[in-house]
Write a structure and sequence with these properties.
Blueprint: H1 5-10, E1 16-20, H2 36-53, E2 57-64, E3 73-80
Antiparallel strand pairs: 1-3, 2-3
């Protein structure tokens, strides 16, 4: 859960958080691949989905981009439950 932990921990129980595939959220950079930031965001999405399976969050919204043809999730809203 290392990629989502700081975001999860700063979200108060009962509150919602909106996160997106932006440089502020996604660490890294300098890759030549045009969709590298979306691929890194996919790891964060997977961690958040694992927290949902554990009953710690509820994912309210998943937005998928339509520019790459791969429909990466590029925006998420979740509610912290525990």
């Amino acid at each position: 859960m290392s990629t989502i932990t700081p975001i999860y921990e700063k979200t108060p129980v009962g509150s919602t958080m909106l996160i997106s595939a932006t440089p502020e959220v996604i660490a890294g950079g300098g890759e030549s691949a045009p969709h590298a930031h979306l691929e890194r965001f996919a790891a964060l999405v997977a961690d958040l989905e694992a927290l949902e399976q554990q009953g710690k969050v509820k994912i309210i919204l998943r937005h998928r981009e339509n520019q790459t043809g791969q429909q990466f999730v590029d925006l998420l809203r979740f509610q912290r439950l525990a």
